[in-house]
Amino acid sequence: MGAAVHSGNRRGTKIVVKDDAEEKKFNNNTKDLLDIMAFYSRVSGSVGVITLQNPPVNALSAAVRQGIVDTMHRALSEPEVKSVVICGQNGKFCGGADIREFRANMRGPPLVPMIHLIEAAEKPVVAAIEGVALGGGLELALGCHYRIAHSKARLGLPEVTLGLLPGAGGTQRLPRLIGVPAALELITTGRHATAAEALQLGIVDEVTDHSAVDAAVKFAQSVAGKSLDARRISTYPCPRSPDLAEIFEKAMQEVRRSARGAIAPVTCVQAVHASVTLPYAKGMERERELFSTLFTSGQAHALQYYFFAQRAVSRWSTPSGARWDTSKPRPVHKAAVIGLGTMGRGITVSLAQAGLSVVAVETQEKQLLEAKQAVSGMLERSAKRRGAPLAHDKIKYSCSIQAVADVDLVIEAVFEDMALKKTIFQQLSGICKPGTFLCTNTSGLDIDELASQTQSPELVVGMHFFAPAHVMKLLEVVYGPRSSPEALATAMEMGKKMGKVSVAVGNCRGFVGNRMLKPYLEQAFFLLEEGATPEQVDQVLEEFGFAMGVFKVSDLSGLDVGWKVRKADGLVVPGSTGKSARIRGGSRYSPLGDLLCEQGRFGQKTGRGWYQYDKPGGRVAKPDPWLHGFLEEYRARHGLVARRIDHQEMLERCLYALINEGFQILQDGIAAGPEDIDVIYVLGYGWPRHRGGPMFYAGLVGLDKVLERLEHYHQVYPNVSGLKPCSLIRKLAASSSPPIHRWREFIQKPRSQL
Ligand SMILES: CCC/C=C/C(=O)SCCNC(=O)CCNC(=O)[C@H](O)C(C)(C)COP(=O)([O-])OP(=O)([O-])OC[C@H]1O[C@@H](n2cnc3c(N)ncnc32)[C@H](O)[C@@H]1OP(=O)([O-])[O-]
């Protein structure tokens, strides 16, 4: 970069042109905005450089927008300046509008006129895109006359994932620039494109491996004085082709199919449609109208809540006072996986892809060979998909558990069998070098019972992966009463390294996810007893937005899994008749799942479960007349009279029972906050993201309403403990249902042990 010409150095060679009078004027204009967050400097004499400065992602806050408007005016008014570059501080162009401002009163200049100011400028404006240009960030770049990107930059319009549409001209400019099909795909999925793809699509003009800012300055000099007539995207003709109607119809079908009730993707298609049917100015009006509808919707609120929730879970804390910011993870270079069944294989792949050396142990030679082949295939497919190098050489396979002696962390992933796991933990405790963290992949067993098998219980934590383990983003990291903060921090960090969202949870039966699933499943079974069919219950849940209804999920994961657990708990009493058949420990119990298992109906794997499949392993669920007959016969045998159950009741009983357990989990301190539960349910259990998660949904419905319905159902079914409202929901409802971010104040804090 050339020498700067003004005084007032703010950062290194960047010179800020901002005199006292201007500062005062700005402060008067913006009243309480603390600082101009776009800095102006002049480079090589003739290029005005505007640098957005709002860490960490240079989001377009009111102050940044004000700064851009002011510095643009400055650049345009200086006769020496012939062209302008807009860039972002710290190698990040811009992460879009400031999402935190969406729920506050609108201040500062709006985005749309700000971008028009840039586009209408008579001097060329070049966007220097490093890091990210997302949402409003990309829309800002589309308002510039040229775009230069760094090869590692990512560009996209992810507004749809926040329940919005690109409302700063994105739906009108992008199709004009790259055509309707490509724009529709980017806008409705919200995915990020690489710089190379953006170049190919025509979103950017040049890609560089060096500094995009330097390249943009050079470029800006080369285009100074040239006509900008062909560079203003808003003036481009509307893209037209004979098959446009078909393209839109297909896009609409696709988003309706995949959106599961989310309104933003559908609205995005409508907005892009306006770009071809209306002139630009009218298209912008339509974009604004549609944007306003989305902006105030509950779905946008839910998705934006979820955006922050997913980030908040990394700031974990435990009731004993351990915290993310005071507990340091220990580095892990070498890890081991014990047991190479389905879960163990997925975990091995995740570890190897995270760059760790892995010792993969399976004691049966034949299974070891099979696992080795399967893992190689998974790694190859995954490397191809991600365009990443193969990680085969990271893994050493062994038949002997002794091979784990020198690893830093072990993940045991054998069957869900406490006796077997205990034996392995006893062995590990003797074999591993001192300080090795011992983790168990379990979906609900007692971490502390396992810890007690070892010489160092403080090194033991649970890592509950979700199948398929190399694909699913969720990891429940379970701390026992004796797990050290360091062990917890290390497991959380390991999850992050593997690309997972790790959520710290306390040790109890089923942890958070599966514990909440129990009353939900229970209600689904009871509904069948009372007259519903699996299809009806699933339809209600799928219409709500679940990826799959509860019975389809049960068929997919295998009915035998829960059966084994119930047997171990002494709940399965084969051949029992009369009233006692449906009561356990004084509470209502449905043996329906047990009865199906006794018939060998384990779900998809046996071709029969709650549904029928064309063959064992078949995927397409079809209603099964046998099952309907079986349910009728079951009801008759137990003196149950089938009734028509409406959608509302099915939904309320399943969801409110689950939510009630969520409140109990908060009250027990098993989850630190409602965000933890919501992230677990969205990422691990198919809860629709546009409904924020079960706890957020409860707040949206109204806690007093949820409480009232729980009270009602508990009155009707007094022997179902899952319907008895938990005291925390009562307390919150009695305190005028505070917003979700204040719920933690109402949870009784266990005394800190620190
Ligand atoms: C008319 C209007 C039309 C336009 C609408 C829009 O532009 S809508 C917007 C469209 N844009 C998007 O949807 C992009 C949203 N952002 C992202 O996808 C990612 O943050 C990233 C890829 C930019 C960086 O990933 P990374 O893994 O490197 O980092 P990270 O993810 O951990 O974030 C770090 C911190 O920054 C925070 N924060 C981030 N962005 C924003 C924001 N826009 N705002 C506010 N805050 C934001 C984030 O909460 C976190 O804070 P914490 O927890 O530390 O207090």
Keywords:
binds (2E)-Hexenoyl-CoA, disordered N terminus, 28 helices, N-(1-d-carboxylethyl)-l-norvaline Dehydrogenase, domain 2, 754 residues, single chain, 45% helix, Rossmann fold, 8-stranded mixed β-sheet, 6-stranded mixed β-sheet, globular, 2-enoyl-CoA Hydratase, Chain A, domain 1, alpha/beta
Helix content: 40-55%
What spatial form do the alpha-carbon principal axes imply? globular
Q: How can the largest sheet be summarized?
A: 8 strands, mixed
- The order of strands across the largest sheet is 14-13-12-15-16-17-18-19
Helix tally equals 28
Class by alpha and beta content: alpha/beta
Question: How many DSSP E strands?
Answer: 21
Weakly predicted, low-confidence segments: 1-34
CATH topology of the largest domain: 2-enoyl-CoA Hydratase, Chain A, domain 1
Bound molecules: (2E)-Hexenoyl-CoA
CATH architecture title of the largest domain: Alpha-Beta Complex
Q: Please give the CATH class of the largest domain.
A: Alpha Beta
Q: Give the overall average pLDDT.
A: 93
Catalytic activity: (2E)-hexadecenedioyl-CoA + H2O = (3S)-hydroxyhexadecanedioyl-CoA; a (3S)-3-hydroxyacyl-CoA + NAD(+) = a 3-oxoacyl-CoA + NADH + H(+); a (3E)-enoyl-CoA = a 4-saturated (2E)-enoyl-CoA; (3E,5Z)-octadienoyl-CoA = (2E,5Z)-octadienoyl-CoA
Family: In the N-terminal section; belongs to the enoyl-CoA hydratase/isomerase family.
Protein name: Peroxisomal bifunctional enzyme
Subcellular location: Peroxisome
